Amino acid sequence: MNNSSDNQNGSSQDSESNAMGLNRTANSSSNAAKRGNVRQTERGGSGAASMGKEEIGKWLDKMVNCNLFNGSWVRDDQHQLPMYEPGSCPYIDEPFDCFRNGRRDNGYERYRWQPKACNIPRWNGKDMLQLLRGKRLVYVGDSLNRNMWESMICMLRDSAEDKSKVYEASGRVEFRTEDSYSFLFTDYNCSVEFFQSPFLVQPWEVPDANGTKKETLRLDLVERKGYYQEGSHIYDELNVFEAFRKAMTTWARWIDANVDPMKTLVLFRGYSASHFSGGRWNSGGQCDNETEPIEDERFLSLDEYLPMLEMVERVLKGMKSPVFYLNITRMSDFRKDAHPSIYRKQNLTDEEKKSPLRFQDCSHWCLPGVPDTWNEIVYMQLLMRQNQQKKWQQQLKTQPQSNP
């Protein structure tokens, strides 16, 4: 997912083919899964808006060293979950709108992520809008990033006092085409945008010996299918892992060369786990009977993703620009219960009506749902950045002034 925010003034169903995205915000964001009851608990985390400035600063300082992604999902029926009322947001595309598509087992909406060593802040939409005032928040990536982008739109819209002042810049209300979109929150002079870029690197066409064109992916260019291109060399075959490594390296170099870390906060969303049982998305894979998260970590499938995750971490650590790794793989791997499954559309085709259980989406997420938690972590990162910037400003003020 790509998320970029700087000063306003100045997809495939199969998630394995859309493994990663970019999240850039700025200064200006198993089938063998075991069923089991997840314990109930009171909502952890602190509401930043209810704390004093000094208390907030101390708490945020502690968060710097906390592993947010080592935790578990806990059932919470006592607090603000879901973060917006199901059916209340008009900007959720049909494939993610499980409530309108007839899903009535809503337990999946009642889980929050609880790190083992700390508490993440409760979502405060009004505070987030203030953090975004005069800025851009930009998501770039595949349909899973669009899933996350629509989540953020709905979370923020729910906190806007005048919802008539929240709208897509060109008036569009459907967001599944290969395009870019920008939601304006005019009371805050901010925008929340999405740019479709499934591969992050640039699609390309080259002529073959017969004069026809074939599609390639330029592994050496950032984007502004069966082949990969690096410079003038075209690979007829290339290991998917190696192609992804080359694409990641290209992306990292582009960020280092083009992004000012003093103005832009960059986040990279990790792999989002899918839960097809008995097949893939186009061959009878199912998840419609799942109503609770995985409880036992032994039933997670992290080993399947480990080589790619380690490669991503190596690339990110080798960058000059600081990038926050939104490492949601383990977090999402628990949530076999929260996919659209058969509730991905209202009107089925004739073929789908003959076998409705065959056509399921077990890679994207229902909204409200899991991507809301990813965005909570984006909110936390913006709080931490704001806290750090205040520290820098205080240090500048206390530095002795040199005589001319």
TrEMBL record:
Residue intervals of the Trichome birefringence-like N-terminal domain: 65-119
Provide the protein's localization: Membrane
One MF annotation (Gene Ontology) recorded for this entry? O-acetyltransferase activity
Q: Name the principal localization, coarsely classed.
A: membrane
- Enumerate the UniProt keywords alphabetically: Membrane, Signal-anchor, Transmembrane, Transmembrane helix
Q: Can you supply one Gene Ontology CC term for this chain's record?
A: membrane
- Chain positions covered by the region annotation Disordered: 1-52
InterPro entries recorded:
TBL, TBL_C, TBL_N
Pfam short name (any one) = PMR5N
Residues spanning the membrane: none
Q: Does the keyword Transmembrane helix apply?
A: yes
Q: What is the recorded membrane topology of this protein?
A: Single-pass membrane protein
Q: Which residues form the Trichome birefringence-like C-terminal domain?
A: 223-380
Here the segments flagged for biased composition (Low complexity) are: 1-18
The Swiss-Prot or TrEMBL record describes its family as follows: Belongs to the PC-esterase family. TBL subfamily.
Q: By what name is this protein known?
A: Trichome birefringence-like N-terminal domain-containing protein
Q: Which organism is it from?
A: Escallonia rubra
